[in-house]
Amino acid sequence: MHALVVSVHPRSNSLTAASSARARDKLVADGHTVDYLDLYAEGFDPSLLPDDEPDWADSAKEYSAEVRSHMARVAAADVIVVVFPVWWFGLPAMAKGWVDRVWNRGFAYEPSTLHGKRMLWLGLAGGPAGYFAKYGFDKILDLQLRVGISEFCGITDATVHLVYDTLAEPRLTSIYEAVSSTTIAA
């Protein structure tokens, strides 16, 4: 099985980067091949410009070379793991821009080429689980990522796992367990 691990953090020494590396290492140890995509290190531009805007009159539109390259990486993966910090109770702009540009019409939806893939959204939240639950932020993230992105794009085997209290102490064990316990690593 081939996995795409997407790391989303501007600092290479962040908990997100360490968690992404941990996920990659776990998948490799389980016998998977892994494409490691660090959006910041690779200089991905999250800005949606006209070349990559969906064309509602043409579902076969050819997108920019950068986006086509990322589409090929997503298409090659059986498993997609996106590791990101939860900022303002959602995806960071870099991750949202990656979805906006790459998960585009004619590739990810209308029609989708992503059916049969598995996906793990692994979010690192600085706050406690109780705060997220009290206001429903955990449910909002699950609905947005699992249903609004993954399922909308044909990925029905998707999981959102949030690791809480990441500012209190490193949670690498929780991250290892999340990658191990989901159907993603099976």
Q: What is the CA-based Rg, rounded? A: 16 Å
Find the CATH topology. Answer: Rossmann fold
CATH class: Alpha Beta
- Helix and strand pattern: EHEHEHEHHEH
Note the main sheet.
5 strands, parallel
Biggest β-sheet: strands ordered side by side in the sheet? 2-1-3-4-5
Description:
With 186 residues, the protein is an alpha/beta fold. It has one domain: Flavodoxin domain (Rossmann fold, 3-Layer(aba) Sandwich), CATH 3.40.50. It is built from six helices and five strands; from the N terminus they run E-H-E-H-E-H-E-H-H-E-H. It has helices spanning 15-29, 65-76, 93-102, 129-135, 137-151, 172-181, and strands at residues 2-7, 33-38, 79-85, 118-124, 157-163. It has a five-stranded parallel β-sheet with strand order 2-1-3-4-5, with helices on both faces. Helix 1 (15-29) packs parallel to helix 6 (172-181). It is globular. The chain starts with a strand and ends in a 5-residue tail after the last helix. The model has no long low-confidence stretch (mean pLDDT 90).
